[in-house]
Every structure is written in structure tokens, then in C-alpha cells.
Amino acid sequence: MVNRLVVFCFVCLFGNPVAADDIGRADRLPVGTAKLIAEVERGKCLFSPDYSCLIRYALATAEWIERAGNKAWALRDIAVAQAEAGDPKGALAIVERIERGFPKALALEEIAAAQAGEGDPKGARAIAEKIEHAEIETRALARIAVAQASAGDPQGARATFETARATAEKIESASDKADVLREMAVLLAATSDTGRARATFETAIATAEKIETEFGKARALHYIARAQAKAGDSEGAFTTAERIESAETKAHALRDIAMAQAEAGDTVGARTTFETALATAGKIERASSRAWALNYLADGQARVGNPKRARAILEMALATAEKIERAHSKAWNLRYIAETLVRAGDPKGAFATAEKIEHATEKARAFQVMAVAQARAGDPKRARATAERIERADSKNWALRFIAEVQVEAGDVKGALATAEEIEGADVKDSAFLYIAPTQAGAGDLKGALATAEEIKGAYAKASALARIVAALAKRE
Q1: Strands, DSSP E only, in 165-267?
Q2: Which long-range CB contacts under 8 A does 139-144 form with residues at least 24 apart?
Q3: pLDDT averaged over every residue in the chain
Q4: Which of 4, 208, 242, 272 could form a disulfide with 178 if both were Cys (CB 3.0 to 4.6 A apart)?
Q5: pTM for this structure?
Q6: Is residue 57 a contact partner of residue 41, using CB atoms and an 8 Å limit?
Q7: Of the candidates 400, 375, 371, which has an alpha carbon nearest to the alpha carbon of residue 386?
Q8: Res 358 pLDDT > 50
Q9: CA 355 to each of CA 223, 292, 311, 331, 364: distance values in angstroms, whole numbers, following the listed order
Q10: Percent of the chain beyond pLDDT 90?
């Protein structure tokens, strides 16, 4: 009786959305009381759901998450949901409760972006200044600048981008700096500021050249080349790819450039680039790396609607994989070749390839990725049948989890829920429901979303699901 009285007194004191952050104060809300508050807000939400009870239910649930890291991420999700729902004050109050630096910085980035999207660039920049992580602060400022440009304020956008550039100079790691400069260039390209985008790409390339490890440098240049191609600068992308010394990474980069050309309608250019990528892959000396590159190229052909060519390259990949001496490396390559065979329209060949795998874990994972590939190909029934053939419980559970995700993306929420119910692992099942619930809310089925969230057992997943339901509802408005 006393505990219930405490609950109702607390609800009376903090019964509005702005005060919801008070639930996050551990010294004022012991775990036992948090659970009682969660039960009260749960009842209110199930009877008459609104922003206030959903946020308070999420916060109270987050308070009894045991692992500090998970609690930080849940609070991050809640803060972002509040910002997207137009409650930046409440969002910032929750951010102060986040004790881990990285999720806190990411939360501030999203809140700043939401503020900018609401037409308050000054407030957004003030929020970005609170970020104690140079890379994330730079990205936040770049996103604010994009919002300014979209709102018809090119002068303000330029000023904010210059601040972002200056902030990027604080990043000590050349790899991290190259990544954030690449992201800035992509955002500039999206605002049609082609000249500044190309200049920023050049700065990113120069920064990538300073990376000390060959792998790190090749990776950075690969991602820059891909981004340039997607931004419509194929010529610049080729030039960047030529800087890559590793034949394996260069082949991957050329494949991505070809994909971007194909997506842009340049089929002739894409075909030429792809053949160059194939020739480059042939220069890779190590069999495991060559097999992986060939499989990646075949995957690209399957994705652009050329399954016959994909299967021909997969034959080369299979022949190369057979030459791999290390058992685990061979099994790993065969697993991904099997997945690509499904995508290329050859499920029979995929199963035959999977059966060749002698490593038990990799074989189970092969059937897992094949099941998901079948689902993505529009055949969830066969996908679930493939999942049933998996002997390892964790791989089977994750196969069902990703099949459910594909079903949701295809609009089959009922089928996704049925698939999720077949999952035996509690954490994996929670992960499936966490993905499904916000989708239901975004489609206007709030009652169904809450019912799905109620199926979640873990406090972290439930708190995050409730937050994402709020965010999904905000996006509908």
C-alpha cells in the first residue's frame, strides 16, 4: 500500500512531459520504485497512450537496466525520441543522465540535427558545442549546415560548414579525420554545392594519404572513391581508386564505382569499370583474398540484375576457394559464396556449396545467410525452411530474426511477428520485437506497437522500443 502511495505521489509531482527526466535521477528513484512507476505508466499507455506516458514508461524502464552501457544507449534512444517529438528541453535533460561519453555525444548530435530541422540553427549550434567529441561535433555541424541550406540560408550554411571544417582539424586520428571529411563532402554534394564538395573530397584524400598503415590508407581511399562515385563524380572516383596500392581493395573500390554508375543509368561505363575491377581481382596473389574479391564482384552483378554473369564469376570464386589451405578461411569464403549464389538465383548451387563446409560454425552461418538471402529474394517460406535446417541454436535464432526484419520491410508485419515467435533465444527475440514495434507505430498501428513492445522481456530492449515508438509517431506528424 505504501509503495503504491509513493508511486501515485510521484506521478502527481512529475505528471507532465517536461518533468519526465526526473525519473532518470537514481538518487530520487530507486530501482524498486522505478518498476512501480513503469507499471503505472504501462497501464496508462495501454489505456490511453500519449507522448507523456510513453516517455515516462521508457524512462522508468531504463532505470532498472543493470548494465551501465546498455542504460546509456537506452537513454540515448529516449533523448533522441524526445528531440524528434519536438521536446528539446526534455531531451537535453535526459542527456545529462547519460554517463557514457560516446552515446551522449551521439544523442547531442541527433538533438542538434532535430533542432536545425525545426528551423533553429542557432539553438542547434549551441547544442553541438556541448559535444565533447571532435568527430561527432564536426558531423553535427555539417548536418546543421545542410538544414540551413535546405531552408534557403546559403550564407548561414557556408558559415556553419567553415566551423565544421575548423572543428575537424581537432581530430587527431588521420583515419577518423578522413572519414568525417568524406561525410562532409557527401553532405555538400547533397546540397548541390559541387565545388566545395570536390574541394572537401580532395582534403579527405590528402588526409587519407597520411594514414600510416597500408590497410587503413587503402580502406579510407576506397570509401572516398565510393562516395565520390555516388555523388556523381566518377572521374574523381577513378583517380582516387588509382591511389590504392592493394589490388584487393582497389578491386572492391572499382566494383563500388561500377555499382554507382549502374544506379545512375550509365550501363556502358559500369560495364567497363566492372571489367577493370575483374582484371584487378585477377592480380590478387593470396587465394583467400582473391576468392573474396571475386565473390564481391559477383554480388555486384547479381544486384544490378545480371545473374548469369554473377554465376560465371562465382564459378571462378569457388575454384579459387578450393585452393585455400587454411580450413577456417576456406569455410568463411564458401559461406559468403553460398549467400551470393542465392542472390544470383542458384539456390541449388548455394546448398551444394554450403554442404562442402567442414567447419561446423561456418556451415551453420552459411545456412543462416542463405535463409536471409532467400527472404530478401521474396521467398520467406523457403527462408524459414532453410532456417529449420540449422543445427546451431544461435545461428538459427539469428536467421529467424533477420527473416522477420525482411518481412517487416516487405510490409508483412503479421508474418514477421509469427517468425519472431519461433525464436527461442530471449535476447534475439527481443531484438526482433524491438525492430517490429516502431515499424507498426510508423504505420499508424500504435496499439499493435505497444502490444509488441510488451512482448519484450529485457529492460534495455523494452526502453529502446518505447523510445523508438515515440520517434516513429513523431515522424508521422
Answers
A1: none
A2: 139/109, 139/164, 139/180, 139/183, 139/184, 140/108, 140/109, 140/112, 140/113, 141/167, 142/183, 142/184, 142/187, 143/109, 143/112, 143/113, 143/116, 143/187, 144/112, 144/113, 144/116
A3: 90
A4: 208
A5: 0.85
A6: yes
A7: 371
A8: yes
A9: 34, 19, 18, 10, 10
A10: 78
